Amino acid sequence: MKNNQKGFIVTLIAIVIILAVGGLFWYSKINKIVPSYIPKSSYSTDSKAAWKTEKNTQYNYQISYQPAEVLAAEKIRPEINVGGVGSNAYAACENAKQNSDTQHIKINGIDFDFLPLVADRSEFFVVQYTTTRNNLCYQILFYAGDKNYPLTSLEQQNAVHLYGQIIESFKFTK
Q1: pLDDT value at 28 more than 90
Q2: 114: helix, coil or strand?
Q3: Distances in Å between the alpha carbon of 35 and those of 28, 48, 52, 72, 134?
């Protein structure tokens, strides 16, 4: 009888462990942050003195962001594409306008289409802001994390906060 009791206890412990691991996996999958636009008023007043400002005289815009080493540490990669009709950037603008997940927002007087392009919520995500001006599309992408460097929940929150701050700095110069 003692061997049967030991076998039962070992089996019961194995089942509890399997359920606990499965529950933890399930919980981590459903509690990932889906990127969304966060209004300026929710940002802290972090010092932006060390931020770099990129000024593009060809397409008449500027945008500020943290130094590359900070962005790398936060696993954030911004990318800006500008193009006219027939370009990939212009196609992105047209697609965003037709996508039901697109949010239409105004930032510093500029109308943007905001679209979260979530690749895999457990590892990384991409968000896209698009706006058109003078027959050009401005596509601003933010990549956060990647398959080799997945994001923790805290890193996801930091990424959402940081790309919100960066997009708030975008403005047209002419």
Answers
A1: no
A2: strand
A3: 16, 23, 24, 19, 29
Confidence (pLDDT) at 119: 59
Mean pLDDT, range 56-61, rounded to an integer: 93
Would you kindly state where each structural domain of the chain is located, as residue ranges? Answer: 1-31, 36-172
pLDDT tens, residue by residue, 120-173: 555 677 888 999 999 999 999 888 877 676 777 777 777 777 888 888 999 999
CATH classification code of 36-172: 3.40.1000
Q: Which of 135, 107, 115, 137 lies closest to 40, judged by CA?
A: 107
pLDDT given for residue 67 in this prediction = 77
* Both structure tokens of 62: 């500027």
Q: With 0.90 as the threshold, say if the pTM is over it.
A: no
The label of the residue with tokens 């990384």 reads: 124
DSSP 22-89: HHHHHHHHHTPPPP----GGGS-----TT-EEEEETTTTEEEEE--HHHHHHTTEEEEEEEE-TTSHH
Using DSSP, state whether 113 is helix, strand or coil: strand
163 contacts 127 by C-beta, under 8 angstroms? yes
What gap in Å lies between CA 18 and CA 113, rounded to an integer?
A: 44
CB 132 within 8 Å of CB 104: no
